[in-house]
Amino acid sequence: MPVSLTPQGLPAWQQRTTRAQWLQYAAWLLGISLFLLCWKVISDNTMWVFVEDAGRQGSDLLSRMLPPRWDYASVLWKPMWDTLNIATLGTAIGIMMAFPVAFLAARNTTPHPLVRSVALMVIVSSRSINSLIWAMLLVTILGPGVLAGIIAIALRSIGFVGKLLYEAIEEIHPTPVEAISATGATRLQVMNYGVLPQIMPAFAGISVYRWDINIRESTVLGLVGAGGIGLQLNASINNLAWNQVSVIFIMIFATVLVSEWISARVRHAII
Amino acid sequence: MLTLSGVTKRYPTGDRALTDIQLTLPKGQVMALIGPSGAGKSTLIRCVNRLVEPTQGSIRLEETEITRLSGNALRQARRSMGMIFQEYALVDRLSVMENVLSGRLGYVGFWRSFLRRYPQDAVAEAFRLLERVGLPHAIDKRADALSGGQRQRVGIARALLQSPKLLLVDEPTASLDPKTSRQIMRLIRELCAERELAAIINIHDVALAQQFADRIVGLRAGEIVFDGLPNELTSDMLTTIYGEEEWDTTPEPMDDEPAAEPPRARVFEGLAAGGAQ
Q: Superkingdom of the source (chain A) (predicted)?
Protein backbone atom coordinates (compact mmCIF):
# COMPACT_ATOMS: atom_id res chain seq x y z
CA MET A 1 0.00 0.00 0.00
CA PRO A 2 2.03 2.92 -1.22
CA VAL A 3 -0.37 5.42 0.31
CA SER A 4 0.49 6.28 3.92
CA LEU A 5 0.39 9.23 6.28
CA THR A 6 3.29 11.57 7.00
CA PRO A 7 4.01 12.48 10.66
CA GLN A 8 2.16 15.72 9.94
CA GLY A 9 -0.93 13.69 9.03
CA LEU A 10 -0.83 14.44 5.30
CA PRO A 11 -1.39 11.60 2.86
CA ALA A 12 1.91 10.53 1.27
CA TRP A 13 2.42 8.45 -1.83
CA GLN A 14 5.32 6.30 -3.01
CA GLN A 15 5.63 4.29 -6.18
CA ARG A 16 6.36 1.07 -4.31
CA THR A 17 5.82 -0.28 -0.82
CA THR A 18 8.93 -0.62 1.34
CA ARG A 19 8.84 -4.38 0.88
CA ALA A 20 8.63 -4.12 -2.93
CA GLN A 21 11.48 -1.61 -2.87
CA TRP A 22 13.78 -3.98 -0.93
CA LEU A 23 12.82 -6.87 -3.20
CA GLN A 24 13.84 -4.77 -6.16
CA TYR A 25 17.25 -3.97 -4.63
CA ALA A 26 17.75 -7.68 -3.95
CA ALA A 27 16.87 -8.53 -7.56
CA TRP A 28 19.44 -6.01 -8.84
CA LEU A 29 22.10 -7.43 -6.50
CA LEU A 30 21.38 -10.94 -7.69
CA GLY A 31 21.47 -9.90 -11.36
CA ILE A 32 24.79 -8.08 -11.04
CA SER A 33 26.38 -10.97 -9.11
CA LEU A 34 25.27 -13.40 -11.78
CA PHE A 35 26.75 -11.19 -14.51
CA LEU A 36 30.13 -10.99 -12.71
CA LEU A 37 30.14 -14.75 -12.13
CA CYS A 38 29.54 -15.43 -15.84
CA TRP A 39 32.27 -12.96 -16.71
CA LYS A 40 34.70 -14.89 -14.54
CA VAL A 41 33.76 -18.26 -16.06
CA ILE A 42 34.20 -16.94 -19.60
CA SER A 43 37.50 -15.30 -18.72
CA ASP A 44 38.84 -18.54 -17.23
CA ASN A 45 37.91 -20.45 -20.37
CA THR A 46 39.53 -18.01 -22.78
CA MET A 47 43.05 -18.66 -24.02
CA TRP A 48 44.43 -15.16 -23.60
CA VAL A 49 47.56 -16.00 -25.63
CA PHE A 50 45.42 -15.96 -28.75
CA VAL A 51 43.52 -12.87 -27.81
CA GLU A 52 46.69 -10.90 -27.05
CA ASP A 53 47.87 -10.99 -30.65
CA ALA A 54 44.36 -10.44 -32.06
CA GLY A 55 45.35 -7.06 -33.44
CA ARG A 56 48.29 -8.50 -35.37
CA GLN A 57 46.18 -11.39 -36.69
CA GLY A 58 43.41 -9.03 -37.70
CA SER A 59 45.67 -6.71 -39.62
CA ASP A 60 47.34 -9.73 -41.23
CA LEU A 61 43.95 -11.00 -42.42
CA LEU A 62 43.04 -7.57 -43.66
CA SER A 63 46.29 -7.29 -45.63
CA ARG A 64 45.52 -10.63 -47.33
CA MET A 65 42.04 -9.46 -48.20
CA LEU A 66 43.28 -6.24 -49.72
CA PRO A 67 43.31 -5.42 -52.50
CA PRO A 68 40.24 -7.42 -53.53
CA ARG A 69 40.68 -9.57 -56.61
CA TRP A 70 38.14 -7.67 -58.69
CA ASP A 71 38.27 -9.93 -61.75
CA TYR A 72 36.86 -12.72 -59.55
CA ALA A 73 33.54 -10.85 -59.66
CA SER A 74 32.85 -12.18 -63.16
CA VAL A 75 32.49 -15.70 -61.68
CA LEU A 76 30.08 -14.41 -59.04
CA TRP A 77 27.20 -13.01 -61.11
CA LYS A 78 25.54 -16.39 -61.64
CA PRO A 79 25.67 -17.51 -57.96
CA MET A 80 24.50 -14.06 -56.89
CA TRP A 81 21.51 -14.40 -59.23
CA ASP A 82 20.84 -17.84 -57.70
CA THR A 83 20.94 -16.30 -54.24
CA LEU A 84 18.37 -13.67 -55.20
CA ASN A 85 16.15 -16.37 -56.69
CA ILE A 86 16.41 -18.54 -53.61
CA ALA A 87 15.38 -15.62 -51.42
CA THR A 88 12.54 -14.42 -53.62
CA LEU A 89 11.01 -17.77 -54.52
CA GLY A 90 11.48 -19.04 -50.98
CA THR A 91 9.72 -15.99 -49.59
CA ALA A 92 6.85 -16.33 -52.07
CA ILE A 93 6.29 -19.99 -51.27
CA GLY A 94 6.63 -19.34 -47.54
CA ILE A 95 4.04 -16.55 -47.65
CA MET A 96 1.60 -18.71 -49.61
CA MET A 97 1.81 -21.40 -46.96
CA ALA A 98 1.85 -18.97 -44.02
CA PHE A 99 -1.30 -17.13 -45.10
CA PRO A 100 -3.86 -19.87 -44.37
CA VAL A 101 -1.89 -21.00 -41.32
CA ALA A 102 -2.17 -17.50 -39.84
CA PHE A 103 -5.95 -17.47 -40.25
CA LEU A 104 -6.18 -20.87 -38.59
CA ALA A 105 -3.93 -19.70 -35.75
CA ALA A 106 -5.61 -16.39 -34.94
CA ARG A 107 -8.01 -16.67 -32.03
CA ASN A 108 -10.74 -14.67 -33.75
CA THR A 109 -10.71 -16.48 -37.11
CA THR A 110 -9.84 -20.07 -36.23
CA PRO A 111 -12.62 -22.60 -36.89
CA HIS A 112 -11.81 -24.63 -33.78
CA PRO A 113 -9.38 -24.39 -30.82
CA LEU A 114 -7.92 -27.74 -31.82
CA VAL A 115 -7.11 -26.47 -35.31
CA ARG A 116 -5.57 -23.44 -33.67
CA SER A 117 -3.13 -25.53 -31.64
CA VAL A 118 -2.10 -27.46 -34.75
CA ALA A 119 -1.50 -24.20 -36.62
CA LEU A 120 0.51 -22.80 -33.71
CA MET A 121 2.51 -26.01 -33.67
CA VAL A 122 3.37 -25.54 -37.36
CA ILE A 123 4.45 -21.96 -36.68
CA VAL A 124 6.58 -22.84 -33.68
CA SER A 125 8.32 -25.76 -35.35
CA SER A 126 9.09 -23.67 -38.42
CA ARG A 127 10.46 -20.85 -36.29
CA SER A 128 12.54 -22.99 -33.98
CA ILE A 129 14.79 -24.29 -36.76
CA ASN A 130 17.21 -21.91 -38.43
CA SER A 131 17.18 -21.82 -42.23
CA LEU A 132 20.80 -23.01 -42.29
CA ILE A 133 19.74 -26.15 -40.42
CA TRP A 134 16.69 -26.58 -42.65
CA ALA A 135 19.09 -26.34 -45.61
CA MET A 136 21.41 -28.93 -44.12
CA LEU A 137 18.53 -31.37 -43.67
CA LEU A 138 17.17 -30.68 -47.14
CA VAL A 139 20.55 -31.05 -48.84
CA THR A 140 20.74 -34.50 -47.29
CA ILE A 141 17.25 -35.33 -48.59
CA LEU A 142 17.15 -33.53 -51.95
CA GLY A 143 20.83 -33.33 -52.77
CA PRO A 144 22.80 -30.09 -53.10
CA GLY A 145 21.45 -27.25 -55.20
CA VAL A 146 19.15 -24.28 -55.43
CA LEU A 147 15.95 -26.27 -54.78
CA ALA A 148 17.06 -27.24 -51.27
CA GLY A 149 17.81 -23.57 -50.59
CA ILE A 150 14.42 -22.39 -51.81
CA ILE A 151 12.56 -24.89 -49.67
CA ALA A 152 14.73 -24.16 -46.64
CA ILE A 153 13.95 -20.45 -46.92
CA ALA A 154 10.25 -21.17 -47.45
CA LEU A 155 10.00 -23.45 -44.42
CA ARG A 156 11.73 -20.92 -42.19
CA SER A 157 9.51 -18.09 -43.49
CA ILE A 158 6.22 -19.86 -42.66
CA GLY A 159 6.79 -19.43 -38.95
CA PHE A 160 7.94 -15.83 -39.14
CA VAL A 161 5.23 -14.58 -41.49
CA GLY A 162 2.57 -16.78 -39.87
CA LYS A 163 3.29 -15.52 -36.37
CA LEU A 164 3.36 -11.82 -37.22
CA LEU A 165 0.31 -12.18 -39.44
CA TYR A 166 -1.83 -14.00 -36.89
CA GLU A 167 -0.94 -11.35 -34.34
CA ALA A 168 -2.09 -8.72 -36.82
CA ILE A 169 -5.35 -10.63 -37.34
CA GLU A 170 -5.96 -10.77 -33.60
CA GLU A 171 -5.50 -7.00 -33.36
CA ILE A 172 -8.10 -5.98 -35.96
CA HIS A 173 -11.06 -3.79 -35.13
CA PRO A 174 -13.99 -6.08 -34.27
CA THR A 175 -16.86 -3.78 -35.27
CA PRO A 176 -16.43 -3.94 -39.07
CA VAL A 177 -16.33 -7.73 -38.73
CA GLU A 178 -19.53 -7.57 -36.70
CA ALA A 179 -21.12 -5.33 -39.33
CA ILE A 180 -20.21 -7.67 -42.19
CA SER A 181 -21.53 -10.68 -40.24
CA ALA A 182 -24.77 -8.77 -39.63
CA THR A 183 -25.39 -8.54 -43.40
CA GLY A 184 -25.75 -12.32 -43.57
CA ALA A 185 -22.35 -12.89 -45.16
CA THR A 186 -20.70 -16.32 -45.06
CA ARG A 187 -17.55 -16.99 -43.02
CA LEU A 188 -15.33 -16.65 -46.07
CA GLN A 189 -17.02 -13.41 -47.09
CA VAL A 190 -16.52 -12.02 -43.60
CA MET A 191 -12.80 -12.86 -43.90
CA ASN A 192 -12.62 -11.27 -47.33
CA TYR A 193 -14.48 -8.05 -46.48
CA GLY A 194 -14.08 -7.62 -42.74
CA VAL A 195 -10.65 -9.04 -41.95
CA LEU A 196 -8.51 -8.96 -45.09
CA PRO A 197 -8.61 -5.19 -45.78
CA GLN A 198 -7.65 -4.55 -42.17
CA ILE A 199 -4.54 -6.74 -42.25
CA MET A 200 -3.38 -5.80 -45.76
CA PRO A 201 -0.83 -3.14 -44.68
CA ALA A 202 0.63 -5.44 -42.03
CA PHE A 203 0.73 -8.31 -44.50
CA ALA A 204 2.58 -6.31 -47.13
CA GLY A 205 5.01 -4.95 -44.56
CA ILE A 206 5.73 -8.37 -43.06
CA SER A 207 6.27 -9.97 -46.48
CA VAL A 208 8.72 -7.37 -47.67
CA TYR A 209 10.54 -7.47 -44.34
CA ARG A 210 10.88 -11.25 -44.55
CA TRP A 211 12.15 -11.01 -48.14
CA ASP A 212 14.76 -8.59 -46.93
CA ILE A 213 15.86 -11.01 -44.18
CA ASN A 214 15.83 -13.91 -46.62
CA ILE A 215 18.27 -12.18 -48.98
CA ARG A 216 20.74 -12.07 -46.10
CA GLU A 217 20.06 -15.62 -45.01
CA SER A 218 20.32 -17.08 -48.50
CA THR A 219 23.87 -15.74 -48.88
CA VAL A 220 25.10 -18.27 -46.32
CA LEU A 221 23.00 -21.27 -47.42
CA GLY A 222 25.77 -22.26 -49.84
CA LEU A 223 28.00 -23.07 -46.86
CA VAL A 224 26.03 -26.30 -46.50
CA GLY A 225 25.66 -26.85 -50.24
CA ALA A 226 22.23 -25.34 -50.81
CA GLY A 227 23.25 -23.15 -53.76
CA GLY A 228 23.94 -19.46 -54.10
CA ILE A 229 26.95 -17.33 -53.39
CA GLY A 230 27.71 -19.16 -50.13
CA LEU A 231 29.26 -21.99 -52.18
CA GLN A 232 31.88 -19.62 -53.58
CA LEU A 233 32.42 -18.14 -50.15
CA ASN A 234 33.05 -21.56 -48.69
CA ALA A 235 35.42 -22.52 -51.51
CA SER A 236 37.39 -19.27 -51.23
CA ILE A 237 37.78 -19.59 -47.48
CA ASN A 238 38.94 -23.20 -47.81
CA ASN A 239 41.55 -22.14 -50.38
CA LEU A 240 42.62 -19.26 -48.11
CA ALA A 241 41.90 -16.97 -51.09
CA TRP A 242 41.12 -14.01 -48.84
CA ASN A 243 41.23 -11.49 -51.65
CA GLN A 244 38.29 -13.38 -53.23
CA VAL A 245 36.46 -13.49 -49.93
CA SER A 246 36.60 -9.71 -49.73
CA VAL A 247 35.03 -9.41 -53.20
CA ILE A 248 32.18 -11.69 -52.05
CA PHE A 249 31.70 -9.63 -48.88
CA ILE A 250 31.48 -6.42 -50.90
CA MET A 251 28.97 -8.02 -53.25
CA ILE A 252 26.77 -9.30 -50.41
CA PHE A 253 26.96 -5.92 -48.75
CA ALA A 254 25.84 -4.14 -51.93
CA THR A 255 22.97 -6.59 -52.48
CA VAL A 256 21.69 -6.26 -48.93
CA LEU A 257 21.91 -2.49 -49.24
CA VAL A 258 19.82 -2.56 -52.42
CA SER A 259 17.26 -4.98 -50.96
CA GLU A 260 16.97 -2.84 -47.87
CA TRP A 261 16.33 0.20 -50.05
CA ILE A 262 13.73 -1.63 -52.14
CA SER A 263 11.88 -2.95 -49.10
CA ALA A 264 11.81 0.49 -47.52
CA ARG A 265 10.36 1.95 -50.72
CA VAL A 266 7.75 -0.78 -51.07
CA ARG A 267 6.65 -0.51 -47.44
CA HIS A 268 6.39 3.23 -47.81
CA ALA A 269 4.29 2.87 -50.96
CA ILE A 270 1.85 0.40 -49.41
CA ILE A 271 1.24 1.81 -45.95
CA MET B 1 -43.79 -8.09 -36.99
CA LEU B 2 -40.98 -8.58 -34.47
CA THR B 3 -41.90 -10.30 -31.23
CA LEU B 4 -39.59 -10.87 -28.31
CA SER B 5 -40.88 -12.96 -25.47
CA GLY B 6 -39.08 -13.89 -22.32
CA VAL B 7 -35.70 -12.91 -23.77
CA THR B 8 -32.97 -13.23 -21.16
CA LYS B 9 -29.25 -12.84 -21.60
CA ARG B 10 -26.68 -13.78 -19.03
CA TYR B 11 -23.02 -13.30 -19.95
CA PRO B 12 -20.55 -16.05 -19.04
CA THR B 13 -19.18 -13.71 -16.37
CA GLY B 14 -22.52 -14.05 -14.61
CA ASP B 15 -23.71 -10.53 -15.45
CA ARG B 16 -27.39 -10.52 -16.24
CA ALA B 17 -27.76 -8.14 -19.18
CA LEU B 18 -31.44 -8.75 -19.99
CA THR B 19 -34.23 -10.21 -17.91
CA ASP B 20 -37.45 -11.54 -19.38
CA ILE B 21 -37.94 -8.95 -22.13
CA GLN B 22 -41.41 -8.86 -23.73
CA LEU B 23 -41.63 -6.60 -26.75
CA THR B 24 -43.72 -6.43 -29.92
CA LEU B 25 -42.84 -4.19 -32.81
CA PRO B 26 -45.46 -3.68 -35.53
CA LYS B 27 -44.55 -3.07 -39.16
CA GLY B 28 -43.29 0.43 -39.92
CA GLN B 29 -42.88 1.52 -36.31
CA VAL B 30 -39.79 3.45 -35.25
CA MET B 31 -39.02 2.63 -31.66
CA ALA B 32 -36.38 4.36 -29.56
CA LEU B 33 -34.72 2.35 -26.85
CA ILE B 34 -33.37 4.56 -24.07
CA GLY B 35 -31.68 3.81 -20.81
CA PRO B 36 -28.43 4.33 -18.93
CA SER B 37 -25.15 2.85 -20.13
CA GLY B 38 -24.99 -0.82 -19.25
CA ALA B 39 -28.79 -1.19 -19.20
CA GLY B 40 -28.59 -3.78 -21.97
CA LYS B 41 -29.68 -1.73 -24.99
CA SER B 42 -26.84 -2.93 -27.24
CA THR B 43 -27.26 -6.48 -25.99
CA LEU B 44 -30.96 -6.36 -26.81
CA ILE B 45 -30.57 -5.37 -30.45
CA ARG B 46 -27.63 -7.75 -30.89
CA CYS B 47 -29.80 -10.57 -29.59
CA VAL B 48 -32.29 -9.86 -32.37
CA ASN B 49 -29.78 -10.62 -35.15
CA ARG B 50 -27.92 -13.09 -32.95
CA LEU B 51 -24.58 -11.29 -32.88
CA VAL B 52 -25.15 -12.05 -29.20
CA GLU B 53 -26.79 -15.36 -28.29
CA PRO B 54 -29.78 -14.91 -25.99
CA THR B 55 -29.71 -17.31 -23.05
CA GLN B 56 -33.47 -17.85 -22.98
CA GLY B 57 -36.64 -16.76 -24.71
CA SER B 58 -37.96 -16.53 -28.22
CA ILE B 59 -37.50 -13.92 -30.93
CA ARG B 60 -39.80 -14.09 -33.93
CA LEU B 61 -39.41 -12.01 -37.07
CA GLU B 62 -42.67 -12.44 -38.97
CA GLU B 63 -43.02 -16.23 -39.13
CA THR B 64 -39.39 -17.09 -38.39
CA GLU B 65 -38.22 -18.18 -34.97
CA ILE B 66 -34.78 -16.59 -35.00
CA THR B 67 -33.42 -18.18 -31.85
CA ARG B 68 -33.56 -21.66 -33.39
CA LEU B 69 -31.77 -20.85 -36.63
CA SER B 70 -28.21 -21.76 -37.48
CA GLY B 71 -25.89 -21.74 -40.47
CA ASN B 72 -27.53 -20.81 -43.76
CA ALA B 73 -30.95 -20.17 -42.28
CA LEU B 74 -29.50 -17.70 -39.78
CA ARG B 75 -27.63 -15.90 -42.55
CA GLN B 76 -30.84 -15.62 -44.57
CA ALA B 77 -32.66 -14.20 -41.56
CA ARG B 78 -29.85 -11.68 -41.00
CA ARG B 79 -30.32 -10.39 -44.56
CA SER B 80 -33.71 -9.01 -43.57
CA MET B 81 -32.27 -7.12 -40.58
CA GLY B 82 -30.09 -4.13 -41.44
CA MET B 83 -27.78 -2.89 -38.73
CA ILE B 84 -26.35 0.59 -38.23
CA PHE B 85 -23.56 1.20 -35.74
CA GLN B 86 -22.30 3.91 -33.43
CA GLU B 87 -18.78 4.04 -34.84
CA TYR B 88 -20.17 3.39 -38.35
CA ALA B 89 -18.31 0.05 -38.53
CA LEU B 90 -17.25 0.65 -42.12
CA VAL B 91 -14.23 -1.17 -43.49
CA ASP B 92 -11.84 1.77 -43.71
CA ARG B 93 -9.58 0.53 -46.46
CA LEU B 94 -12.41 -0.33 -48.83
CA SER B 95 -14.06 2.22 -51.09
CA VAL B 96 -17.47 3.69 -50.35
CA MET B 97 -18.99 1.59 -53.12
CA GLU B 98 -17.46 -1.62 -51.78
CA ASN B 99 -18.75 -0.80 -48.33
CA VAL B 100 -22.27 -0.22 -49.63
CA LEU B 101 -22.18 -3.35 -51.79
CA SER B 102 -21.09 -5.41 -48.79
CA GLY B 103 -24.70 -5.04 -47.67
CA ARG B 104 -25.49 -7.45 -50.49
CA LEU B 105 -23.08 -10.17 -49.33
CA GLY B 106 -25.91 -12.33 -48.02
CA TYR B 107 -27.31 -12.59 -51.56
CA VAL B 108 -24.21 -13.27 -53.68
CA GLY B 109 -21.79 -16.17 -53.74
CA PHE B 110 -18.22 -16.02 -52.48
CA TRP B 111 -16.44 -15.73 -55.84
CA ARG B 112 -18.74 -13.01 -57.12
CA SER B 113 -18.11 -10.99 -53.97
CA PHE B 114 -14.38 -11.78 -53.99
CA LEU B 115 -14.03 -10.55 -57.58
CA ARG B 116 -16.38 -7.64 -56.85
CA ARG B 117 -18.68 -8.72 -59.69
CA TYR B 118 -22.02 -7.89 -58.16
CA PRO B 119 -25.25 -8.38 -60.15
CA GLN B 120 -26.22 -5.27 -62.09
CA ASP B 121 -29.44 -4.73 -60.12
CA ALA B 122 -27.49 -4.64 -56.85
CA VAL B 123 -25.07 -2.09 -58.31
CA ALA B 124 -27.94 0.03 -59.66
CA GLU B 125 -29.63 -0.06 -56.26
CA ALA B 126 -26.35 0.93 -54.58
CA PHE B 127 -26.07 3.96 -56.87
CA ARG B 128 -29.67 4.88 -56.11
CA LEU B 129 -29.12 4.57 -52.35
CA LEU B 130 -25.94 6.63 -52.40
CA GLU B 131 -27.89 9.29 -54.26
CA ARG B 132 -30.69 9.05 -51.69
CA VAL B 133 -28.39 9.47 -48.67
CA GLY B 134 -26.69 12.37 -50.41
CA LEU B 135 -23.29 10.91 -51.32
CA PRO B 136 -23.31 10.44 -55.11
CA HIS B 137 -19.93 12.19 -55.40
CA ALA B 138 -18.12 9.96 -52.89
CA ILE B 139 -18.43 6.59 -54.63
CA ASP B 140 -14.74 6.10 -55.32
CA LYS B 141 -13.41 7.59 -52.12
CA ARG B 142 -12.00 5.38 -49.44
CA ALA B 143 -14.27 5.08 -46.42
CA ASP B 144 -11.68 6.60 -44.08
CA ALA B 145 -11.56 9.74 -46.19
CA LEU B 146 -15.11 10.72 -45.19
CA SER B 147 -16.38 12.76 -42.26
CA GLY B 148 -18.41 11.20 -39.44
CA GLY B 149 -21.79 12.17 -40.85
CA GLN B 150 -20.85 10.96 -44.33
CA ARG B 151 -19.64 7.66 -42.95
CA GLN B 152 -22.89 7.13 -41.12
CA ARG B 153 -24.72 7.77 -44.42
CA VAL B 154 -22.62 5.05 -46.03
CA GLY B 155 -23.50 2.79 -43.10
CA ILE B 156 -27.19 3.52 -43.68
CA ALA B 157 -26.88 2.80 -47.41
CA ARG B 158 -25.15 -0.50 -46.62
CA ALA B 159 -27.92 -1.52 -44.24
CA LEU B 160 -30.62 -0.60 -46.77
CA LEU B 161 -28.98 -2.50 -49.62
CA GLN B 162 -29.81 -5.65 -47.68
CA SER B 163 -33.50 -4.90 -48.49
CA PRO B 164 -34.26 -5.30 -44.80
CA LYS B 165 -37.65 -5.44 -43.10
CA LEU B 166 -36.20 -4.22 -39.86
CA LEU B 167 -33.44 -1.79 -38.95
CA LEU B 168 -31.37 -2.32 -35.82
CA VAL B 169 -29.70 0.96 -35.02
CA ASP B 170 -27.08 1.14 -32.27
CA GLU B 171 -26.37 4.70 -31.07
CA PRO B 172 -26.39 6.23 -34.57
CA THR B 173 -25.62 9.73 -33.34
CA ALA B 174 -23.33 9.18 -30.37
CA SER B 175 -20.21 10.14 -32.34
CA LEU B 176 -21.80 13.01 -34.27
CA ASP B 177 -22.34 16.71 -33.65
CA PRO B 178 -25.89 17.89 -32.81
CA LYS B 179 -26.71 19.15 -36.29
CA THR B 180 -25.46 16.04 -38.07
CA SER B 181 -27.22 13.94 -35.44
CA ARG B 182 -30.54 15.50 -36.38
CA GLN B 183 -29.88 15.07 -40.08
CA ILE B 184 -29.02 11.42 -39.61
CA MET B 185 -32.06 10.77 -37.40
CA ARG B 186 -34.29 12.54 -39.91
CA LEU B 187 -32.81 10.47 -42.74
CA ILE B 188 -33.38 7.21 -40.87
CA ARG B 189 -36.91 8.32 -40.04
CA GLU B 190 -37.69 9.22 -43.68
CA LEU B 191 -36.21 6.01 -45.05
CA CYS B 192 -38.27 3.96 -42.60
CA ALA B 193 -41.39 5.75 -43.79
CA GLU B 194 -40.50 5.30 -47.50
CA ARG B 195 -39.85 1.60 -47.16
CA GLU B 196 -42.25 0.79 -44.32
CA LEU B 197 -39.38 -0.43 -42.19
CA ALA B 198 -39.63 -1.08 -38.52
CA ALA B 199 -36.66 0.16 -36.51
CA ILE B 200 -35.20 -0.21 -33.05
CA ILE B 201 -32.94 2.73 -32.29
CA ASN B 202 -30.69 2.71 -29.24
CA ILE B 203 -30.12 6.28 -28.29
CA HIS B 204 -28.69 8.25 -25.39
CA ASP B 205 -30.17 11.58 -26.37
CA VAL B 206 -33.68 11.63 -24.93
CA ALA B 207 -34.63 14.81 -26.78
CA LEU B 208 -33.72 13.26 -30.13
CA ALA B 209 -35.64 10.12 -29.21
CA GLN B 210 -38.75 12.12 -28.39
CA GLN B 211 -38.47 14.12 -31.58
CA PHE B 212 -37.97 11.27 -34.04
CA ALA B 213 -39.53 8.10 -32.60
CA ASP B 214 -43.11 6.81 -32.67
CA ARG B 215 -42.62 4.97 -29.44
CA ILE B 216 -40.13 4.99 -26.61
CA VAL B 217 -39.06 2.04 -24.52
CA GLY B 218 -36.98 2.62 -21.41
CA LEU B 219 -34.59 -0.04 -20.24
CA ARG B 220 -33.07 -0.15 -16.78
CA ALA B 221 -30.75 -2.90 -15.57
CA GLY B 222 -31.99 -5.26 -18.26
CA GLU B 223 -35.72 -4.75 -17.68
CA ILE B 224 -38.31 -2.67 -19.49
CA VAL B 225 -39.49 0.06 -17.13
CA PHE B 226 -41.25 2.32 -19.63
CA ASP B 227 -43.12 1.69 -22.86
CA GLY B 228 -45.16 4.50 -24.33
CA LEU B 229 -45.51 7.48 -26.62
CA PRO B 230 -42.81 10.17 -26.69
CA ASN B 231 -45.05 12.73 -24.96
CA GLU B 232 -45.76 10.33 -22.10
CA LEU B 233 -42.13 10.45 -21.08
CA THR B 234 -42.22 12.72 -18.04
CA SER B 235 -39.50 13.77 -15.61
CA ASP B 236 -40.76 11.16 -13.16
CA MET B 237 -40.44 8.52 -15.82
CA LEU B 238 -36.89 9.65 -16.64
CA THR B 239 -36.05 9.30 -12.96
CA THR B 240 -37.38 5.75 -13.04
CA ILE B 241 -35.23 4.96 -16.05
CA TYR B 242 -32.02 6.79 -15.26
CA GLY B 243 -32.17 7.56 -11.56
CA GLU B 244 -32.50 10.82 -9.67
CA GLU B 245 -31.54 13.97 -11.64
CA GLU B 246 -32.78 17.52 -12.19
CA TRP B 247 -34.63 16.72 -15.44
CA ASP B 248 -36.19 20.11 -16.06
CA THR B 249 -32.81 21.52 -17.02
CA THR B 250 -32.73 19.08 -19.95
CA PRO B 251 -32.46 21.26 -23.04
CA GLU B 252 -35.51 21.59 -25.27
CA PRO B 253 -35.41 19.60 -28.51
CA MET B 254 -34.76 22.18 -31.21
CA ASP B 255 -32.34 24.67 -29.67
CA ASP B 256 -30.17 22.66 -27.36
CA GLU B 257 -26.50 22.48 -26.52
CA PRO B 258 -24.23 19.84 -28.04
CA ALA B 259 -25.09 16.42 -26.71
CA ALA B 260 -22.60 15.16 -24.17
CA GLU B 261 -20.13 12.48 -25.22
CA PRO B 262 -21.48 9.04 -24.46
CA PRO B 263 -19.94 7.63 -21.28
CA ARG B 264 -16.96 5.41 -21.94
CA ALA B 265 -18.70 2.47 -20.28
CA ARG B 266 -20.12 1.62 -23.72
CA VAL B 267 -16.73 0.28 -24.74
CA PHE B 268 -17.15 -2.53 -22.22
CA GLU B 269 -20.60 -3.35 -23.53
CA GLY B 270 -19.07 -3.63 -26.99
CA LEU B 271 -16.29 -5.87 -25.76
CA ALA B 272 -18.71 -8.10 -23.95
CA ALA B 273 -20.81 -8.39 -27.09
CA GLY B 274 -17.75 -9.20 -29.19
CA GLY B 275 -16.55 -11.79 -26.74
CA ALA B 276 -19.89 -13.54 -26.68
CA GLN B 277 -19.85 -14.40 -30.38
A: Bacteria
